[in-house]
Fold these 2 entries.
Entry 1:
Amino acid sequence: MVPHLLTALKGPLLELERRLLDATPQIERWFRLEWQEHTPPVYCSTDLRNAGFKVAPVDTNLFPGGFNNLSDEMLPLAVQAAMAAIEKYCPDARNLLLIPENDTGNAFYLQSLVRLSAIMRQTGLNVRFGTLNPEIERPTLVDLPEGRTLLIEPLERRGRRIGLADFDPCTVLLNNDLSAGLPEILEGLHEQTLLPPLHAGWAVRRKSNHFAAYKEVAKKFSKTLDIDPWLIDSYFATCGAVDLDERTGEDCIAANVESVLRQMRSKYREYGIKEKPFVIVKADAGTRGMGIMSVRDPAEARELSRRRRDRLATDNEGIPVTEVMVQEGVATFETINEAVAEPVVYMIDRYVVGGFYRVHASRGRDENLNAPGMQFVPLPFAASCNLPDPKASPEVASNRFYAYGVVARLALLAASIELERTDPDQSLYG
Amino acid sequence: MVPHLLTALKGPLLELERRLLDATPQIERWFRLEWQEHTPPVYCSTDLRNAGFKVAPVDTNLFPGGFNNLSDEMLPLAVQAAMAAIEKYCPDARNLLLIPENDTGNAFYLQSLVRLSAIMRQTGLNVRFGTLNPEIERPTLVDLPEGRTLLIEPLERRGRRIGLADFDPCTVLLNNDLSAGLPEILEGLHEQTLLPPLHAGWAVRRKSNHFAAYKEVAKKFSKTLDIDPWLIDSYFATCGAVDLDERTGEDCIAANVESVLRQMRSKYREYGIKEKPFVIVKADAGTRGMGIMSVRDPAEARELSRRRRDRLATDNEGIPVTEVMVQEGVATFETINEAVAEPVVYMIDRYVVGGFYRVHASRGRDENLNAPGMQFVPLPFAASCNLPDPKASPEVASNRFYAYGVVARLALLAASIELERTDPDQSLYG
């Protein structure tokens, strides 16, 4: 499938994309040098928003699902990138334990697991699935489409190592975002590499740490390229102690909404953007967008309806919200047959391996497209993200995807820095 | 284009391919461990022959041309692999000097240079072309198809560094096989990485060193997989001092032909192969197959006609032959529309990035397909070499190409070992 985007880009973004294309050797060298200083997480997916005048990451997932949504053509790239990752962490690895999400009832997620395990197998690893789900007490065959099955087994802790009954892995690949908290069974492992590390899970991770690191990365990158960092970054602010039941923190949210909107209005004026700015209010820790709201007015933030407050008050695994992030809203400008579309870029190690569009017929340009219960249609990127054609228009697929790949890698770099700073063992970064 | 091969494979090879498919994780781990011990050359192409009962490398090129023959779909893989290579050798590199063959009159070769430079540019390098050709005394625009041009400039030596008038590269990529001898201008460079190193050039390199290393690699690999190494390797022998003008060395060649044929007959009997064995007689140092002859009988070797002797006596850049290699002939079993076809596999760093078939309508199954003046038709591989489907037949394209990729990587590993052993600076391998 070839995405047919009804995009008619406006001035600043076209200029930005042109700038990225022209500066390709400089950009690639910049990343090469950054990766000398920082180690990327084993994998990562980044949701981007292209507003027509700016393109920015809105979510960086360190436990990506959706590998099934990438095109088959991208698989060789993914395998090659995974080889580089495994060589780095555990060159003599023979066995890889993959820890999936606890819920094995989602057929799409299971297909992503199949894809991910096929990629890892092709790097020369025996891959098996060990679950944190206490309800799975014995090896269990889970049904897949087309009569296939997936064997999911209970994790076993033996001393300071984790594995399956007859399987001792060198590397453990976490594909569970740990929203439910830090599982004791994974703590204090010895001579086993956990990828990504425990503190990448939502039990510890905060979006604001990520976006604070992203802001620095975007600033440094923008300085090198002599562009306005706002074209690839969003304003945000946090409130540290919010209890919507007790109505504490509402003032902070309202003030932050006002502050972010004020900064946005100033930028909109600077670039002559006529649209009405909006902000996103979301939990600082958490995942699947259950608590994500669009707000256009500080008053609206105060008048959060009970229903909305309930939505925000718990994320999908039931942790009460105590920290809230208010972030500049970036509308998606891309549409496919009048449905709004949002690009998601996939990375393994430091390489962009592909991407897809999340296409929603029933959602607005200013709404979150990754909400539960909302089925999106995945549309795989039809070209790779690492082969721009500087002689062609920025709107050619390979050029647009290159620009997306650059911004996504900035988010990847931000994630690396975020994970360094939040690592409980700071002795590693002397 | 999808290759439609009129192959009807016989028993042993199908068994070998099945074995390779089933052992994929083991094979990939084996390579991963080998690459901990050895450093691959920056790039490499390997000509393979699939005889229907065995598949073996017949030539390993450390200065590959023909990048233009790879499919566009393989380019992202090539870029990603080149990024890995550059990171390893010169992470802060900004400028890459590419030294092409001296002859810039070959339009196909020029297109390969364009492809190769595009790949390297996409890793974040400024790429320019500096030539060893003394006839090019000033920057010269060479015409390409479709009205494009390529700027080739004379090399300049400044102290212990090499570059162009206004260009000081960190990395120098040799795409000149140095058949004409070691150029003084490239000797004793300081703080510039020459890739591959000087001793990879035909001025120093010997095919017999390569195939001796390949024999060891094939033996080790075959032991791991419990297969007969002969299924992926060929017998060979060398004669060290041949002067066909003086008719010295003819006895040695005849004896070696007899010896290799004898070993082959024994293997043919073991596997019930009814074909008549033949050997290849070629210069031990040299390139483009000007002096490559098929011989079926030791008597034939003694009765080399004057014409053939002349052909063997000089390679394409005019160096008299003094060393000769006699190698088991591997007929190509693959045909496309009745034309014989030979796979060529391309590698950058330790990754297989693609390949193509050399298709010749006018040559026999037991002849060299890479002879000058013989135009072959390139047919790009239609699938990648790193995504086998163990559930499908070995004859499916992705599975056949995986097997080719494995054998080609064995040749790549042999080239690494060969270059270590022949490095004039042995202090690097303590």
Note: Residues 1-10 of chain A have pLDDT under 50 and may be disordered.
Entry 2:
Amino acid sequence: MTRVEIWPTKGHPAVFAERLEDSSLPTVLVYGHHDVQPVDPVEEWEAAPFQPLERDGLLLGRGTADDKGHILMHLEAVRGILDAQGRLPVNLKLIAEGEEENGSEHFESLFREHLGQLAADVAVISDTGMLSRTQPALTIALRGMAYWEVRVRTSDTDLHSGVYGGAVLNPVAVLCQMLAGLHDDSGRVTVPGFYDQVRDLSGEERAELARVPFDEETFLQSVGAVAGGEAGYTLMERRTTRPTLEICGIWGGYQGEGAKTVIPARAGAKLSSRLVPDQDAAEVTRLVANHLRTTAPQGVAVEFDLIHDGRWVLTPASHPAVDAAADALTAVWGRRPSYIREGGSIPPVATIAELLDVPCVLLGVGLPEDHIHAPNERVDLGQLFRGMQTLGRLWQGYSDLGREGLRG
Amino acid sequence: MTRVEIWPTKGHPAVFAERLEDSSLPTVLVYGHHDVQPVDPVEEWEAAPFQPLERDGLLLGRGTADDKGHILMHLEAVRGILDAQGRLPVNLKLIAEGEEENGSEHFESLFREHLGQLAADVAVISDTGMLSRTQPALTIALRGMAYWEVRVRTSDTDLHSGVYGGAVLNPVAVLCQMLAGLHDDSGRVTVPGFYDQVRDLSGEERAELARVPFDEETFLQSVGAVAGGEAGYTLMERRTTRPTLEICGIWGGYQGEGAKTVIPARAGAKLSSRLVPDQDAAEVTRLVANHLRTTAPQGVAVEFDLIHDGRWVLTPASHPAVDAAADALTAVWGRRPSYIREGGSIPPVATIAELLDVPCVLLGVGLPEDHIHAPNERVDLGQLFRGMQTLGRLWQGYSDLGREGLRG
């Protein structure tokens, strides 16, 4: 039985599709998302962001890697299996939601609403990446996140910088002071209590991470970035196992050409934290809000809003559903996958793990150089093709394990 | 002989008008400007910025106070004198330039080009204000200024805050650190050498400033501002006699609705200094640029541009041309004017003083609550009418002094 439905939400709709072969077969729920990040700065794109451009084995365009390429990979894998075998070795359900890039605000309520229809034995999430074309990987952990907006106001109106300059507080200067004070010289977050809930990595976990083939120089140089962050941790540890507090945007006063001699009335910033086990987003939100309010000079109006948050995820690396995925990857890539932790956040994965109580296997074929969230996002078509082959093997592997075997 | 001309520049044109009565009479050059500040944030205006709205004796609109209202005041004064007497008691020249709000970039070359036609015995600049409706004032000093843009870049492209967060420098955080470091806890500018050229006020000058009727609370409360600035100086001293280093604008990363989980590649800010005797704009520019480059973390690309600058002005308060203006103000307002210093900058005044070698009398009728450079700029029409009466008396006063007497 095949069915495709559009599920409306209070925000953007999700698409649900299922092909149920036989109730005795294992059921796999595949998760992806059809929404994408904004395209700005649009002037830095080499081609129109929504006009796919194929070049040198790459497909450029917004969403090609994050995450429409992965959805395409699943659909084409299904098509290939059906062409060859006429049926799937598992029951397959796909949910492609439309709000992942905005924190999946309505995903949990949508999921609860359709919980019966979404029931599965295992969930496969394809919104992650590998270390390189030659080194496959399975993601066993995701960071969570909390995203905030902070705004300060120091006067009722913009002021002439000559008439008032020297006499009054400048909201941009105030905000810069507040934000500059969020980290110390060693790159540690200064918000009191920020690290209290962080579970330290074991020596074994650090050793495992250190074995992951990963070239820091290449990672940084591919995007021209300057190394930064918390002292005392490797770059890989900092970007996957340590919490962050980033400024994602800032604004205030005059931003146009030339000069406007103004002391603005207001300034604001977008902040976000990547959260790790066992941090609680609500608690971190409370700590950051309190700290910013406390460090603002007297008389300055501070507004602080939570935009969205999402929990971190940790999947047992020893689960048979993960083993089967590792076997499929090994067969296609000719090399065992690394077990890695992703620094990014996929809030709905936590929802799926919690509401279905099934293992979540994070199987994605993105590459570090895909420029996701940035201008000129691209996907490597070779990765997509190998991903399709992997899925063919994986569904057969899950079929062989059976519903019982998948319970682990 | 009456003449009106439009003088083109490489930027915006100036308007020149003259009425020459008799070469034995003193010649007055009046300066004003017809350009205005940008109107943004336009959504905070109560009416369209260029649709004048009269209400309760006020005229709202961009430029009503700064500086078109002053030009209107001069034109209507001339009309009144001609209606009553058929001729002016002086030769009058008016130059209204079009680039004052952008640093008068072409004013000096324009002035040099037309130097012969601009020759005068005294210059009257009407682009300043008074302390209140009941307390007239003559401005004897203006601060100079330098306006800069600084941009930092930490990567080639925007980066996903999950994939890279914790591993790389964030340009907004870097910029906030650099800008937060420009002032110490006492509000003093930390740029080495910044105060080296500042001429300290004498005890007498500080006493004179302390006598100026000025209510700090009213000044701040009228715009809802929070007091700030350099410790150890009165608010009046800080805003008129001390140099500043302000952030006029800042930008970087995502500024839209909701969330974009990005580490931007770039961030930037507009900075400006108000300069006081004997600071040199080029020297201060060098110091600030060096300091920002020095305090940026290694690997961060820093670009720094001078947008424009202008010299401070100091006019001898004892000059007969100033005395005559004080007498005219006293006759109309019924109270002697205060001799004040303005915190703002009018770069062309320095040009006029230098190229014509004449006393510059700064006679303006703006009020602190005029909201110049801000939404809902307004002018008090009563101030304009009293200003016209004052000009009638002043031109007669200059006529009585004669060309010799005006030399001081």
Note: Chain B touches chain A through 94 residues (CB under 8 Å).
